[in-house]
Amino acid sequence: MIKTSEYSQLSLSRKPAIEDEKKSQDTCRSLIILLLIAVACLPISYALTILFMHFNQEVPEPPITSTTLQTTTSTKSSLHNAAACGKRIIGYYTEWENADVTKEQLDKLTHVIYLFAAVQENGTIKLEGEKSERRFYGLKNEAITSNPELKVMIGVGGHANSPRFSPIVSDTRKRGKLIDSIVTFIDENYLDGVEIFWVWSYETNKVHHSKFIRELRKKLTDLKIQKKRSEEYLISVIVPPSISHLTSGYYLNEIMKDVDFLNVLSYDYYFNGNQIGPHSPIYGGTRGNVDETMKFLACRTGKPSKLNMAVPFYGTYWVNASFPLLDDSDNIWKEKGSAGGPFAVRWNELIPKGWDKESAKFHEKSKTSYIWIPETKHFLTFENERSLQEKAKYVKNHNIGGVVIWAIDQDDVANTLLNVVSSSDICSVKDKDIVEYLC
Ligand SMILES: *[C@@H]1O[C@H](CO)[C@@H](O)[C@H](O)[C@H]1NC(C)=O
Ligand SMILES: *[C@@H]1O[C@H](CO)[C@@H](O)[C@H](O)[C@H]1NC(C)=O
Asked: Which of 20, 22, 31, 375 to mutate to test the pocket of ligand 2 (most atoms within 8 A of CB)?
């Protein structure tokens, strides 16, 4: 069982406690069972249902097939194409998941970012707890023997301690302390750079946010000179998917001068509010979509090569959802009404939790994979092989700088999703800062 605090970090938004999910599923289950008895009036169907559901929960992960192994071998050369054409395949690796990172995974990435080093009130950063230290040093060990081009970065901040950024960066002295602490951490751990994982900068922060990034760049350049390092240290900043928030909370063109790239967290579009919909739709809907976000950023900054588009390796689902989701042409966006959720489910938990991946359908308009179970009124929206191929195609066609994965430790043991992302052709023939949108 995952702890609530860990569960809430599955994605950017706060997820409801897993206990609620379980309770609602249990209630939901009992309801279906009752219904079945009423309709069929057969005790035998009751027994069968129980058996089926029980069994369903305990289906083991499928074994690694030879097809998967073949994909693994072919991905390597494709990845080198992506890296050679200057595109990025970035993986987040987290302190709270359980699967240990492997050399095989790292060989498919250009960058790996460890989440998180926490910001303390006095402005210093540190890894929190024994598990986090073990996972971070484990990552560093694997990285030493993997592809020498791999960049290893530390993500500073995170959901829980992001509120600490505002008071620290608005105070010149504390801001300096935070920067010094980041620079020391990078130096002591032989890292290639840092991601500022501040969720989020708002209107009142934006001046200090860009000052912070500017001063951080200066200090990292000083370190580079001091260490006689040939390459600059890397700086990345996360930005939200909402256009109004991007406009009000960030001096985008100021930040762009000092960062190597922005990681655009282009998911959870339907996490809040009264609607149910695809969590990372490329097109459509009324609560924004990936295309609107990426277009806005590419047009506003003129630097599509500095943008990475995020893809989630978890799904979002609702229970008690009331729609007739009849076919792919049907409108996939619905009022939430009395539906329960949203809840998050990792890719590697889909099978153990009874979801049948083979039953996934594809919504053409939003380019989203989903599962709709009319009997239980469960609606799941998630990334699978097909939707990730669509995302890769989008990155290529719009000359976007790369893909960032939340998170590689939510993939299955065969790295099914990572294989799709890393083997996709995302290289564009166009020059890197040609904006492929009608701005
Ligand atoms: C900052 O705060 C932490 C936790 O309160 C403490 O352990 C650490 O020693 C402090 N560091 C400095 C430089 O004040
Ligand atoms: C699902 O619907 C049933 C019946 O209306 C209700 O008892 C249950 O609480 C609902 N579950 C959620 C999570 O909303």
From this structure: 31
